[in-house]
Specification:
Two copies of one chain form a homodimer. Chain A is α/β, with parallel strands linked by helices. Chain A has two domains: 6-54, RecR Domain 1 (Helicase, Ruva Protein, domain 3, Orthogonal Bundle); 75-194, Dna Topoisomerase Vi A Subunit, Chain: A, domain 2, CATH 3.40.1360. Helices cover 41% and strands 14% of the residues of chain A. Chain A contains seven helices and seven strands. In chain A, the strands form two sheets. Chain A has a five-stranded mixed β-sheet with strand order 4-3-5-6-7, with helices on one face. A two-stranded antiparallel ribbon of chain A has the order 1-2. Chain A is elongated, with a radius of gyration of 20 Å. The N and C termini of chain A lie far apart (54 Å). Chains A and B meet through helix 1, helix 2, helix 3, strand 2 and helix 4 of A and helix 1, helix 2, helix 3, strand 2 and helix 4 of B.
């Protein structure tokens, strides 16, 4: 690798820390920044910090939100009888993209992983149970990832929720096992929602 | 596409403006930023602005530099008898990566393009001619891109420089024509430097 002037070398290093960005992409982006208008770089720089400063978690579902209650939970057109449980806020994206689910969400912020020392008590499960008391929930769709940890979390939640008389379903394993929800295409994700099965 | 909380939507939009970043990559990076430590985001944000504020052009070769004279021009170990002419500062990267060129550079900051209204007078050609008076230059290697514009620029420079009694060479067309220097692998780039031909 050639030597870069210090601020450029530092920027390449910082960009390389981002997911999916290798050395060549980082260089390409850094040289783009170098040529860009200062106000455009200022906008990007401010947007980065604003995401850290202006977003919190929804008081109801723990999704990312710029208000106390997120845009799904405060939307009167969403079906309050269905809750789709996901591991992380970004897992909502492929589900929303299908436009086939009109219920609410619950974000666990993780999955059960004994190897990493993460048990059910570290996930937002208590908050999910509290929601069942408040609203008339008919179905809980478990949309945790099709991985060992996601499956373990789904099984744990099914055992916990079914005795409460709620219908508990699991998204179909149409998505390649071992992968991440994030990479699912719209059709596979739609199929997966459609073929959810009783647990 | 789902709705994102405003600061997140804005960050995704800003990241999508970067070269080679589509919607999915932008989302992935934005969610990564959301989860990252604030100090890490601050470092990235500062690095972006520093590149705009702390870098200028080398007074000798017009390469990017954090000092009046860039690190290549001030390096006493580089061969001052050879100058490699490139279009843009980022074109130095694949050449330096080969570690087979030990001369100096000259950055034109563009190429002759009648379609975009760019003539020789808009490029840093006068500065190149001035360097020939000051130093004992034996060879000028034309490493402009293998595109119509890059080739036109090389032909223009060859006609200008050969009457001055300087050896003018062109990097070999081992690199796929119509592509950009940036994408060349090390071996192809080495071959290309090795097979430079008289003009």
């Amino acid at each position: 690798m050639p030597d870069f002037a210090e601020p450029l070398a530092r920027l390449i290093l910082e960009i390389k820390r981002l997911p999916g960005i290798g050395q060549k992409s980082a260089q390409r982006i850094a040289f783009h920044i170098l040529r860009a208008q200062r106000e455009d770089v200022e906008r990007l720089s401010a947007a980065l910090l604003d995401v850290k400063d202006k977003l919190g978690l929804c008081a109801v579902c723990n999704n990312i939100s710029d208000a106390e209650v997120c845009l799904y939970c405060r939307d009167p057109h969403r079906d309050r009888h269905k809750i789709c449980v996901v591991e992380e806020p970004h897992n909502l994206v492929p589900i929303e993209t299908t436009r086939t689910f009109n219920g609410l969400y619950h974000v666990l912020h993780g999955s059960i992983s004994p190897l990493r020392g993460i048990g059910p008590e570290q996930l937002r499960i208590k908050e999910l149970l509290n929601r069942l008391h408040e609203a008339d929930v008919e179905e809980i769709i478990l949309a945790t990832n099709p991985t060992v940890e996601g499956e373990a979390t789904a099984v744990y939640l099914a055992r916990l929720l079914k005795p409460l008389g709620i219908r508990v379903t699991r998204i179909a394993m149409g998505i390649p096992v071992g992968s991440d929800l994030e990479y699912a295409d719209e059709v596979t994700m739609s199929k997966s929602l459609e073929n959810r099965r009783e647990m």
